[in-house]
UniProtKB/TrEMBL annotation:
<dbReference type="Pfam" id="PF01071">
    <property type="entry name" value="GARS_A"/>
</dbReference>
<dbReference type="InterPro" id="IPR020560">
    <property type="entry name" value="PRibGlycinamide_synth_C-dom"/>
</dbReference>
<dbReference type="InterPro" id="IPR020561">
    <property type="entry name" value="PRibGlycinamid_synth_ATP-grasp"/>
</dbReference>
<keyword id="KW-0436">Ligase</keyword>
<dbReference type="InterPro" id="IPR000115">
    <property type="entry name" value="PRibGlycinamide_synth"/>
</dbReference>
<dbReference type="InterPro" id="IPR013815">
    <property type="entry name" value="ATP_grasp_subdomain_1"/>
</dbReference>
<keyword id="KW-0547">Nucleotide-binding</keyword>
<dbReference type="InterPro" id="IPR016185">
    <property type="entry name" value="PreATP-grasp_dom_sf"/>
</dbReference>
<dbReference type="GO" id="GO:0016874">
    <property type="term" value="F:ligase activity"/>
</dbReference>
<dbReference type="InterPro" id="IPR020562">
    <property type="entry name" value="PRibGlycinamide_synth_N"/>
</dbReference>
<comment type="similarity">
    <text>Belongs to the GARS family.</text>
</comment>
<keyword id="KW-0067">ATP-binding</keyword>
<dbReference type="InterPro" id="IPR037123">
    <property type="entry name" value="PRibGlycinamide_synth_C_sf"/>
</dbReference>
<dbReference type="InterPro" id="IPR011054">
    <property type="entry name" value="Rudment_hybrid_motif"/>
</dbReference>
<protein>
    <recommendedName>
        <fullName>Phosphoribosylamine--glycine ligase</fullName>
        <ecNumber>6.3.4.13</ecNumber>
    </recommendedName>
</protein>
<comment type="pathway">
    <text>Purine metabolism; IMP biosynthesis via de novo pathway; N(1)-(5-phospho-D-ribosyl)glycinamide from 5-phospho-alpha-D-ribose 1-diphosphate: step 2/2.</text>
</comment>
<dbReference type="Pfam" id="PF02843">
    <property type="entry name" value="GARS_C"/>
</dbReference>
Length: 417
């Protein structure tokens, strides 16, 4: 099968890796140096119509769309117009991620458990509401912010500052939510809009510093599987995944692709923190190495409305992903830092998230630069191997969290390294 993967980050590198592992010919655009080691990088304009025409010209069997911005721009719609199978939601369906105000209204309309919330299009009204609340307060930019438009404000002044930042934008909306407590977990559903299969649950670590402190990021590390109780997973299926897919069908926007459910396991049961319309990043870098079946075939089947959940298989193992971020991230990351990568062993991989080739070798180009993943029989061993591999990366000034997995008591086991 010939597969086109759209995107150029760590998530797309993980998708390419999964497809090539299954023996497929893979093209990618815009790609990155890590993806270029596995697939053919194609230079193309990145607008939706051009990408669909590229897929047609290359005769690909299926398109897999990675980043949310491409979905919101209508890449899948353009592929549909040309009769090209594409794994991902349409522009209308991707609104589940791209418009948090719409998404919250959708959840309320369909009885999907989430935090109590209010949406505001006016700064003064939002500030007045914040003044009536007791911190911590969750403030979200309703727009598409690549996972970074959320502030957990521990003072009213911090909440006001977040709102003022949001309302510097034209047409802005803010969602203000009650703060939820519990373990945060991600569940991904591969789906054709009706049938679905769940990946093993995973847990990302969102803030830049240890102890879940500092500003929010796109994600600093992942463990998989997260030890969620089977009865809780049944609640997630019954009360969240299935009503969401049914609600999208009922609203005339069937959702195909990857439904990302970011959940909080509250004392009152699982509740939705947010929905995304694609593989998470860096969750994909931890979940996809455990996939023991054919991602490209699943994508094609889902795009055709013929998804077969029983064919989706995952290894009975554990994975850990450690993010190496540039100095200055998540503010203004330093770019152009020279990188020297070691050769990973079996069941280890270094995914490129923000890198480029230069005349002097590999350099950093973004905030989150590398995702270092290891797979092992147990989570503690996977963590030990991932941290050991990260330590061998020559990346001056790199930021990484040393406490990935600590929320559930996991500790790196270095005895097997």
């Amino acid at each position: 099968m010939r597969v086109l993967v759209i995107g150029g980050g760590g998530r797309e590198h993980a998708i390419v890796h999964a497809c090539t592992r299954a023996g497929h010919e893979v093209l990618c655009t815009p790609g990155n140096p890590g993806m270029a080691e596995l697939a053919r990088v194609v230079v193309s304009a990145q607008d939706a119509a051009s990408l669909a025409r590229l897929a047609q010209a290359e005769g690909v069997d299926v398109v897999i769309v990675g980043p949310e911005a491409y979905l919101a721009a209508g890449v899948v719609d353009e592929c549909d117009t040309l009769g090209i199978p594409a794994f991902g939601p349409t522009r209308a369906a991707s609104r589940l991620e791209g418009d948090k105000a719409w998404s919250k209204a959708f959840m309320h309309r369909h009885g999907i458990p989430t935090a109590a919330h209010h949406t505001f299009s006016d700064l003064e009204a939002a500030e007045a509401h914040v003044a009536s609340l007791t911190p911590p307060i969750v403030v979200k930019d309703a727009g598409l912010k690549a996972g970074k438009g959320v502030t957990i404000a521990h003072t009213t002044d911090d909440a006001r500052a977040a709102l003022q930042d949001i309302f510097t934008q034209s047409g802005a909306q803010a969602v203000i939510e009650d703060f939820m407590t519990g373990q945060e977990v991600t569940v991904l559903a591969l789906t054709d809009g009706t049938t679905y299969a769940l990946t093993p649950p995973s847990q990302d670590h969102k803030t830049i510093h240890e102890g879940d402190t500092g500003p929010m990021t796109g994600g600093m590390g992942v463990i998989c599987p997260f030890p969620i109780a089977p009865e809780q997973m049944e609640v997630v299926r019954r009360d969240i995944i299935e009503p969401t897919l049914a609600g999208m069908r009922a609203d005339g926007h069937p959702f195909r692709g990857v439904l990302y459910a970011g959940l909080m396991l509250t004392p009152h049961g699982p509740k939705v923190v947010e929905f995304n319309a694609r593989f998470g990043d860096p969750e994909a870098e931890a979940v996809l190495p455990l996939l023991d079946s054919d991602l490209a075939q699943h994508a094609l089947d889902a795009a055709r409305g013929q998804f077969q959940p029983d064919t989706v298989r995952f290894r009975g193992a554990a994975s850990a992903t450690i993010i190496l971020a540039a100095p200055g991230y998540p503010g203004e990351p330093q770019k152009g830092i020279p990188l020297d990568l070691p050769t990973p062993s079996t069941d280890e991989i270094i995914y490129h998230a923000g890198t480029a080739a230069s005349t002097n070798g590999l350099i950093s180009t973004g905030g989150r630069v590398l995702a270092v993943t290891a797979v092992a029989d147990t989570l503690n061993v996977a963590l030990g191997r991932a941290y050991a591999l990260a330590d061998r990366v020559d990346f001056p000034g790199a930021q990484l969290r040393k406490d990935i997995g600590a929320r559930i008591g996991a500790t790196p086991d270095h005895t097997s390294v």
